[in-house]
Design goal:
Layout: H1 6-27, H2 34-57, H3 62-72, H4 86-106, H5 114-133
Length: 137
């Protein structure tokens, strides 16, 4: 893997987190309907499967693999809904950045280097996390 493909590593981390969240959602009773928990877990598992398949397919078909990864990380955006929980927001922002980078790569655009991504995305993510801590509740 090329070092400029930082989003592949972040997508793998997101896949592991989605699997853990899906299992945890099924085990823990949050008071909601069971069918809702099953659907949410199925969406997370499907996303993790797409990421894993995309990483594997990238060796033979980089464009298809990048598209699968880009679509697979989209359920990770659900972390943005939990704006009061900074780690979830960070995962949501990472999923957004990874999806954008993967779609750009699938279209043949020049990949964003890790340094540039951190220079732009890091302060934005930090600001978002700090803003969530300042909310009452």
């Amino acid at each position: 893997m090329n070092s400029s493909k930082w989003w592949i590593w972040s997508a793998a981390v997101i896949a592991v987190l989605m699997l853990a969240l899906g299992v945890g959602n099924l085990i823990e009773d949050d008071g909601g309907p069971l069918w809702g928990q099953i659907i949410f877990a199925a969406v997370l598992f499907a996303g993790a499967l797409l990421i894993a398949r995309g990483i594997r397919v990238r060796r033979s078909s980089p464009q298809l693999g990048s598209r699968l990864i880009a679509i697979g990380v989209l359920p990770g955006l659900s972390g943005l809904a939990f704006f009061w929980f900074p780690p979830a927001v960070a995962v949501g922002l990472l999923a957004l950045a990874s999806s954008i980078a993967a779609f750009a790569d699938s279209r043949g655009a020049k990949a964003v280097s890790t340094r540039k991504a951190l220079a732009v995305g890091g302060p934005i993510a930090l600001l978002a996390v700090l803003m969530t801590w300042g909310l009452p509740g």
